[in-house]
Amino acid sequence: MLHDHPPSYAPEWGSGGIFGLKYYRGVLYYTLAFDAIANFVTDSGVERYRFEQVGPLPTSGGDTYNAVDAVDDNIYFGGWVHAPAVYEGSEASLRGTISFVNKYSHVHFYDVEDRRVSLLWKEGAARKDEWAGEVSEIIYNPVQDELLVARGDGTINLGVYGIDRRTGEPRKLSERPALKGALVYEYACFDILERQIKDIHGVLFTKAVTGIQCVNLTNGKVTYTSLGDISRRSVDGAPVSWPQTGPAASAYGRFFLFVKGGAFVGNPIDEGTEPVRFVRLFDFGESGYFSRRTVAKPIGGGVMVAFNAYSESLVRPTNQFEEMVARATNTIVGPSVLLYITPPVARIVGAYGARITSFESVGDRLVIGANTMSNTSRYNALPLDIGYRGFIIEPISEVLERGPPVRFSVPGALVKDKVFGGIPLTGYSRPRLVIRAGRSNRLHVYEYDFSLPAQDAYEETYDITGGKNVMDLSGFGSSILSFRLEDPDPRARIVIDLQ
């Protein structure tokens, strides 16, 4: 019943994917974006819903952040949808856009018992160039029997909202934009986004995580934690560029917030007990490689998360800064990976193609949604979704046992003299670092693990020469390593080879 989805008519930016995978009471739900088709797979077959309760067909969009939760007999799913979609591309100018007049944020629910979809809430801005904050996270609050909804992608009505499950009536709990969150103790914690996008075609990497906000499930009061200078929180003592939000998860009594360059982990409710620290993971400087538009979930008591090679990109730049972004986001430095965190160990357990958009455990199997194409931005809207989207189904026991060979190839121009890496070595007997340097330099190596509470890294330095330098990393055991070239070397090619 699960099959691949080739490119199809779906006006949007680049490609969406398979989002919101949720297995609940015999039903496997997912939304196919940008086709805007919600799928409900059972032993009896597949039911499909095209969001026609939001507005007229043809629709496009659906969900690209994995906004889903299940309560009682209902699967709640959210996101956004164009109903109908209005493509405004121009073949002559190569500047494709979409009118947002018919763009709506939404929350629906699927009644597992009655096999019926109902619209709970929708909201639009009714403007060509503005849109109401998309629904990017849904968390059930069992104390107040309401849905907590994060909204950080949009131009109006952003923040954290509570939505009544019976009436669909919303109430704003926080004004601060949020994309992702998770339950931690008696709180629901979310990121806080810095708002820098000035129009609907804002350049990539202009929103960043600046803090964490936590909603008390009992009284609705919100506490705010500013992350401040990230280098003061980082285990290797260095900052991170453009920490855009990835997914969030909760485990071991801590809040995990994955961002571009790594993860924040700790107790944002009471930093006196344990401060939130930054652990660098798969940070390749200006590259677009990170855990964007994917999920982090508890599997076997640990946390599994995807880091993607090609989540977002800019294809048609219009100025010098966008040209840099286009080069960086279209430079593929390595495969997408599944990372499995069981403190103090973090290890790679899967290597795949361009994107892993969602995954879910179904019995003893892991169902993975994949895509060949990124979301794009600015003038990159097209009348169709150009990605090939499909499924991989694997035994969970086999996934958790392996360490696939992985190779990362990083241009020195992307990392300059910044700290990069965050490469877990667990499971590899022959890891090595190869630097083809343009000149002599000094390499700083930072060694740490995923201990809780997070511990500072150990630093060592090595002299490298112009030409080929090969460094055996097996002596670092099961550590995580990040690196820094003391002087920028744009001619360098850095290869991390894990065997």
Automatic annotation (TrEMBL):
It holds the Pfam family DUF2139. InterPro entries: UCP016666. It comes from the Archaea. This is DUF2139 domain-containing protein.
